[in-house]
Specification:
The structure holds 2 protein chains of 2 kinds. Chain A is of the alpha+beta class. Chain A contains 18 helices and 23 strands. Classes of the chains: A alpha+beta, B mainly alpha.
Chain lengths: 545, 317
Amino acid sequence: MKKVVFVLLVLGLVLSACGAPAAAPPQGDSGSALRVGWLGFPDTLNPAYAFLTESYTMFDLVYSTLTTEAPSGEYVGLLAETWSVSEDGLVWTFNLRPNIKWHNGEALTAEQVAWNINAFITNSDGWVTNYSYIIGFVEARALDERTLEIELEYPISNMEFRVAFLYIVYPKDFEGFTTPEDLQNFANFSPIGTGPFKISTLDKDRRVIILDANPDYFDGRAKLGQLVYQTFDNSDALIQALKVGDVDFAAEVPTSAFKTVETFEGVTAVSISGRSLSELILNSAPDDHDPAPNRNPAITDPAVRLAIATAINKQDLVDVVLQGQGVPGVGIIPPTLGGGFWFNSNLTDVQFSLDEANRILEEAGYVMGTDGVRAKDDLRLEFRLQFPSDSSNYPRAADMIANWLNQVGIKATPAAVDPDSLVVATNPNADYDLVIWGWGSDPDPDFMLSVMTSEQYEEGGWSDSGYSNPAYDELFAQQQMTLDENERQKIVWEMQEMLFNDRPYIVLWYDDVLQAYRSDRFTGFIEYPTGIDAFQSLMNVEPVQ
Amino acid sequence: MNESWLLFKRSLSDFWRIFRRNRMGMTGAVLVLAAVMVAVIAPALSPYTPATVIRDEAGRGLTFAPPSVHGPLGTDDAGRDVWTQLVYGARISLTVGFMAGFIAMFVGSLLGILAGYFGGWLDNLLMRVTDVLLVIPDLPLMLVLVATLRQMELKVSPLTVLILVIGLLYWTSTARLVRSQVLSIKERQFVARARAIGAGHFHIIRKHILPQIMPLIVANTVLILSTAILIESGLAFLGLGDPTQPSWGTMLNFAFDRNAISNGAWWFYLPPGLAIVWVSLGCVLLGNVLEEMLNPRLMGHHLEGEARVVKTEAGRG
């Protein structure tokens, strides 16, 4: 759901490049401890202001939400047992399960859940990561110990999905903060939740997190006794650790190593069609944006955009960059959303052809110069091609794209950029030409579509392309309020087509989730769209007898 | 041609006579020259360009193909011929190394001569600047500079940025070395005599000092070359090279990023590594021998005539 923003400065790169393999994780009750190796570490365990995917992995284990996604993509109750909505669609009533306890032994009350939701609504500057899920909420009320009512401003089409992203925290830990900054600076490294695991050790220096199964979990105790998360400095070290059995689970297998991991003895490698996409962002900020966009104005020319799209061989990108573990991209909604329901299958992608791209540019008046770069009057087709420095896929993709573009007279200069700087360069500075980046989509199309609305193009908003189209914004508001799924689908498809034709993004590919585990030691993993390490899957994992 | 330069030429031929008998020096020279040759004739050594993707019958990129399946050195993660990348990479690595090395030599020599010859406040100023640059760790400084400069909208290519940053930061040791030599030479009698008969500063530097320190500068340049190539590889390995013009460092960067090690693709990461070792070893051998042979402490003034050669030969045993 969140753009993965790893805070990895150039100097950090040096350290990780020379870093020694990570220390072996501490041994717990090894019979029932699953040792997970991953490449990141949570920046915070405070759901108010978390950006790294690792933080969300921890939230899922420690906290609970009212509803949750089933492997099928449907929403089922978690804290909520049943729910109903009023005739006019403005009041939702959730009945909580009995016997839900916090990690400290106290019972959870509807009052506490209401406190959470009201905090998200009234202090939305503080709880920024929840903001897009509570738009349209008016107030939450506890009717009794186990009944919660949420009042809405207008009917919301995806309510069950929305509440599945609101982690319910222990109010006493969060009540004391007076300003949004105080709230966001709280790292919450010993969280109290209601989830299936509780954190017993969090060692930031050794980058180890140990979680114990919560014996009082309302849905029954997890079959595992412990989860041990160990951060690795580089993916080769992680893969070797999996191979020799120092870890039992690799939470992220790099695409370029997946085929090798598949051949490891005693290891099962899993590839799941995920919800991520990678795209080429074309600077689409309006000319009157403040600050004024700093870009080569040729990037806004529809002919140039079409030529760029035509000169990119997406199948080659999938074959090489993803080593076949993904599919070429078309629209902004990945084909997995709602089992394909939201994906506009009428869109046919531009056919790759360097000749055609050359022809388009020729026709648009861009004449090939003696140095191999096309120009129209003084406007040379020279673009910066930037990508975040924390990815192992994007350098290769940038290299390939730059080579294709060079062959049609477009000079693209690839450069890796620190992700934090790239966030500012794209939004609000509009200081870029082309950027390769990616998104992890929500299960509902709402989030990906929201990224392209003009109201998101302001500091702290999600838009990076700067796309601004009143007709699109209008449709976005409409789809949020359309309760009939088929009606909503029509709007969502139309929005995808709009984006496809205007090309603020050229979607490059939808990548698979690649994970691997020691199948000679553990069994019971369940495939979820986010991977086989969804908390429901981990609860079901047990040692091989 | 004036007398000093004639003498310089003669000492060069003397030098060659001794040098060619030095096995280490010759090895170094051969290593470096071989690499330069490969870079020059790169297109003749491969039927492909670095960007050509080798494809299988189905038209898909042949990725991570071992040497047994394709070419002398297999393919990389993008299905490109590793041998081609290696020989073309020599061009980039050596160009950046040589250009940066020469810039460093030029700046270092100029500042060293100015500081040493004129002394006083100028010496003080230049040497304090040198001190500052010497205490700042090179690699992190260069990383930050290259990364920052590349993010600004400069109308120069990434390679030029690399060359300038390495060249303009790596002159400090040359400057110190040259300065100390100039300090000692300018006190010698023949300089005093030249000054006494009215020679100007420029004349003295050009005719009396430069010929004396030239060999030192040459030896030092060769050593800086190897450092410049290593730094270029280091920066490119960290992703600061130009991916569209692969150097050996860029190849290593991709090999590391794309898990060549886990894939067992030794043909992807060993060749560029060995190529870097090849050139740096050549430069270091050559530079060390040159430095040893041309050490000014073993060298008399040209007015002392043939004595120098005898001494040097004796010194080398």
